Amino acid sequence: MYILASTQASNFVSGVDKAFIIILAICFFFLIALTAVMIYFMFKYNKKKHPKATQIKGSNTLEVVWTVIPTILVLIMFYYGWAGWKPMREAPEDSFEITVNSRMWNFTFQYDNGRRTDTLFIPKDRPVKLNLRSMDVIHSVYIPAFRVKEDVVPGSDKFMWFTAQNEGIYELFCTEYCGLQHSYMYNWVKVMPEEEFNTWYTDTTQQLASAQVESPTAAGKRIMTNIGCLACHSLDGSRLVGPSFKGLYGHEATVKTGGETRTVMVDDEYIKRSIFDPNADIVEGFNKGLMVSYEGQLTETEVEQIIEYLKTLK
């Protein structure tokens, strides 16, 4: 079931909504009040009633009033904003931790037991801490129903935490423009009862069954799609950020290695090196530093499945 963002989906909804409503109410009050005063003055002091302008002397009392009152209102807005934000920076020590890997242009969620998913599965009524990592540029993780958002900056240790309070499926997406397919970074959060989540978390039979049925070629294509390879490499020979995968395997490529130009055969070892150390051999005509290493992101088996898929792209 899909839950609307207006429900108390997490422990932060109440504090964030309270700050939002208070700030919005103050803004609307002054919008209406100032507009009403302006209209009143337009009629009261128009040229027909006052053809000759008169000088109105200033008032020290009025100066103090319109300085003190806005200052108090600003401090009130600051207090409620700070009160809603401060708990977000203090994750409980017993939080269930999940690593969020962000790259152009997708999110993947990695669990301590080795599971990686495209949907964020979390237990209900248990603190969850998301450790945010960017593999390339600045991204931003936003779960509107939970009222949490955090920028993901390359090289910085960022996190967000929350306690989901309602079962259901919620939206998660990137809110930092990160390139051509920024809008593709759209995922889901599934909140499950803790017992059901624990069963899902520890059950590997489904993964094993899938691995037995799925061919290495199909698995390779799925993996490459999930980790965003096809966002930078085409399958039809067209030029994108990186070289096309079409006809790549088994052919020679001209690369720069340590500043020297050489010709290499695109074989298993070359592809493995390109995945784990992408700046070692730069294909002629492309720039260095556009791809980050997948070291620790992919297993040897997954790399072998990718190679099997590349072999089919004649």
From TrEMBL:
GO terms for cellular component: plasma membrane. Keywords: Copper, Electron transport, Heme, Iron, Membrane, Metal-binding, Respiratory chain, Translocase, Transmembrane, Transmembrane helix, Transport. It catalyses: 4 Fe(II)-[cytochrome c] + O2 + 8 H(+)(in) = 4 Fe(III)-[cytochrome c] + 2 H2O + 4 H(+)(out). Residues 1-92 form the Cytochrome oxidase subunit II transmembrane region profile domain. The keyword Translocase applies. Its EC number is 7.1.1.9. Belongs to the cytochrome c oxidase subunit 2 family. This is Cytochrome c oxidase subunit 2. The lineage of its organism: Bacteria, Pseudomonadati, Bacteroidota, Bacteroidia, Marinilabiliales.
